[in-house]
Amino acid sequence: xxxxxxxxxxxxxxxxxxxxxxxxxxxxxxxxxxxxxxxxxxxxxxxxxxxxxxxxxxxxxxxxxxxxxxxxxxxxxxxxxxxxxxxxxxxxxxxxxxxxxxxxxxxxxxxxxxxxxxxxxxxxxxxxxxxxxxxxxxxxxxxxxxxxxxxxxxxxxxxxxxxxxxxxxxxxxxxxxxxxxxxxxxxxxxxxxxxxxxxxxxxxxxxxxxxxxxxxxxxxxxxxxxxxxxxxxxxxxxxxx
Length: 241
Description:
Blueprint: E1 8-17, E2 21-31, E3 36-40, H1 47-54, E4 62-67, E5 70-71, H2 77-86, E6 88-92, H3 103-113, H4 120-129, H5 145-157, E7 163-167, H6 175-192, E8 196-199, H7 203-206, E9 211-216, E10 219-225, H8 229-240
Parallel strand pairs: 3-8, 3-9, 6-7, 7-8
Antiparallel strand pairs: 1-2, 1-4, 4-5, 9-10
């Protein structure tokens, strides 16, 4: 799908809020298709801003943002909305599930709101893919935190997005549930060629990724490939110290 272009590319992107705050400062980043990239840095370094700009949730002040080779920097709100519904998946620390809906109904809700009909067999297949094939009719209160996060991942994947963006997706989970979610994401990259861009503060989580990008004061200051937990932790410590 992305043979000739990165899944996500930022070209000299900046993002300012008013005249005093420059959250991103001349950031260039290329995330290869079929790869898992993690973004780390101290609090206030610009991690979430980078994620939101890359995903089209926030407008850049300067530079370009490309998704699957398509320049979306100046795309209209309607185009961005359609892109988010059909080509981009989102997973956050808060699961954002509707408590009155079943797992199956939560998974299909975004596409239903967009007027897209999805065969039940496809919904069941996606739930089975995250290990919840037998939980389709369970509501969030009947699921553990890890299971709820996997429902959220299934919801993000139902439209077969070009890129999955994740903001601290394991932050609210216990270590066992977090490991299951990380294994699921790794299998998506290795088995299905999925592209993932994730923000996390946890070096152990970051060590699961193909590459770790470090931000400080709105700038990229380092990048590690296939790093260990210790290597990630040591590099992060130098930025937070």
